Write a sequence for this structure.
């Protein structure tokens, strides 16, 4: 734990919970929980002044806690009032035994009334009491998140307590739900986390639209129902993240771009994971069985974009994250459609980049994961063809994201003047055509652009 932070806390305060747990495990301690018997606001103010370069604000909860955050994002401290008259009483209100360990500031002696150290050594997560999860249902998601982060097993009685409390999760605010769910989806064991959420009933509580995909059969090109296919797409996206070389010669550059921030404490890779979970979210409502037994899901990507917007609004994610995931859901089939028209031209690629901006890289990776998870009829020939196309699209998408588009050969007003037409929607259509022709290398100068526009107009 940062020594300057502990040194700024007053005598008689206690370090508690995950901070002590992570100290014992030798993990980096960046989220610090401190409990004080006095005024937490005054203590937080003292910490802020002592360490400098930090901000302080109320957590606006029922307990009167305050947070101090380092401006360089190296750590944060939550200062809370003592719950009860003793530190042992305070620890009795906590969720898991491994989080119910404390030590007094300046001391290394552990206060461990619930044998949390024993459970740490055994790598087991155990509830402190029978009401651990009903006291705050969000703790069900926290249990899943901590199990994934630490690689610990959850003991059976605790699983049952969490399972019983899961139906209460919808009453928890969307912000708090996503605070934990975002860390589950962005964690190192996200697929196992989703499986555990499903086992506990938490997936049904947080993402009922996803569990509604269970048992919905697909066409012969699929080997799994919609739910299991969705989880396999997540699995394949994780595989591509671990082995970006499978995405072709641009794989390492793709990986570097997707390591960038997308908001809500997540990377673009994590948004791809969310896209994997939500890409077929509307298949439960769009399934159609045609004559002859053929199965389809018409416009599921369009309907799914709207459903995704509703889900992420409910979870109160940032606009940036929501917009990116919505765009991935909307366009996740575009590359697949293009495989039916190979070989693709430069104009085809330019059209794809325009329609999928600014998630061209992201959605192409999602499309690759989707194809890899579709292993029904003729998949042996379809997968290599699709991955080859994705490699071409990613090469172009990376180049466009790094360097941007080439400057237009002519401005809209100059084009209208040269053609003797009014400015308006028609000029926009012409500029889009010129951009495609320029990308394909068909025109290189302003004069060629005007001549091309004249020919295009005449052909309409």
């Amino acid at each position: 734990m940062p020594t300057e932070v502990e040194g700024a806390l007053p005598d008689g305060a206690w370090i508690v919970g995950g901070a002590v747990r992570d100290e014992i495990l030798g993990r980096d301690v960046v989220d610090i929980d401190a409990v004080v018997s006095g005024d937490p606001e005054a203590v937080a103010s003292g910490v802020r002044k002592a360490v400098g370069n930090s901000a302080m604000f109320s957590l606006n909860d029922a307990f009167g806690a305050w947070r101090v955050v380092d401006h360089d994002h190296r750590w944060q401290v939550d200062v809370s009032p003592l719950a009860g008259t003793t530190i042992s009483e305070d620890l009795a209100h906590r969720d898991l035994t491994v989080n119910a360990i404390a030590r007094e500031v300046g001391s290394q002696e552990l206060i461990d009334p619930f044998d949390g150290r024993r459970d740490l050594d055994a790598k087991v997560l155990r509830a402190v009491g029978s009401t651990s999860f009903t006291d705050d249902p969000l703790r069900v998601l926290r249990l899943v998140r901590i199990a994934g982060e630490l690689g610990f097993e959850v003991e059976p009685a605790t699983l049952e307590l969490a399972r019983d409390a899961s139906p209460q999760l919808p009453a928890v605010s969307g912000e708090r739900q996503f605070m934990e769910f975002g860390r589950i989806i962005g964690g190192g064991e996200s697929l196992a986390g989703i499986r555990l959420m499903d086992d506990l009933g938490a997936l049904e509580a947080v993402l009922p639209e996803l569990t509604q995909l269970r048992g919905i059969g697909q066409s012969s090109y699929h080997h799994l129902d919609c739910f299991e296919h969705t989880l396999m797409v997540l699995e394949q996206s994780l595989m591509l993240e671990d082995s970006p070389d499978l995405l072709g010669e641009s794989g390492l550059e793709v990986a570097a771009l997707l390591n960038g921030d997308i908001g809500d404490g997540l990377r673009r890779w994590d948004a791809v994971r969310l896209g994997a979970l939500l890409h077929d979210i509307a298949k439960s409502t769009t399934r159609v069985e045609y004559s002859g037994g053929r199965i389809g899901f018409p416009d599921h990507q369009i309907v799914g974009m709207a459903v995704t917007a509703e889900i992420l609004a409910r979870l109160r994610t940032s606009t940036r994250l929501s917009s990116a995931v919505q765009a991935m859901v909307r366009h996740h089939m575009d590359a697949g459609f293009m495989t039916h028209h190979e070989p693709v031209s430069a104009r085809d690629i330019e059209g794809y980049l325009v329609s999928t901006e600014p998630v061209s890289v992201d959605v192409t990776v999602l499309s690759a994961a989707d194809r890899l998870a579709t292993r029904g009829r003729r998949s042996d020939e379809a997968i290599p063809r699709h991955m080859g196309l994705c490699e071409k699209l990613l090469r172009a998408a990376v180049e466009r994201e790094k360097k941007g588009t080439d400057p237009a050969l002519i401005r809209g007003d100059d084009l209208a003047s040269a053609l003797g037409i009014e400015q308006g929607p028609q000029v926009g259509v012409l500029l889009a055509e010129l951009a495609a022709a320029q990308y394909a290398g068909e025109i290189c100068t302003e004069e060629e652009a005007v001549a091309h526009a004249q020919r295009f107009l005449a052909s309409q």
Observations:
- The first strand starts at residue 14 and ends at 16.
- The chain has four domains: 1-114, 123-206, 219-403, 412-459.
- The CA atoms of residues 244 and 251 lie 5 Å apart.
- The chain is about 55% helix and 10% strand.
